[in-house]
Automatic annotation (TrEMBL):
Residues covered by the PepSY domain: 7-79
UniProt entry keywords in alphabetical sequence: Signal
Identification of the protein by name: PepSY domain-containing protein
Source organism of the structure: Aquibium carbonis
InterPro entries (alphabetical): PepSY
Signal peptide positions on this chain: 1-22
Amino acid sequence: MIKRSILAAGLATALFVAPAFADDRPPTPEERAQIEAVLAAEGFTSWDEIEWDDDGHWEVDDAVGPDGRQYDLKLDASFAIIARDPD
């Protein structure tokens, strides 16, 4: 009976903790290189955080565009820019 209680408690903990691991994540070095190449090709000169969003796209915060304005960007899984939201 005690073993079942411990097992049940462990399973319940795993169910509540597991979604946290599915949240946003930073890019791998290879992904970062591809994203940065796309940003540079589009004329962006600097940016802050890059992360994979659990909604299925990349997010780039505070990217400075060729016009000098800051944008929050979204890129699809193929690293194409799909949204530019001015800050």
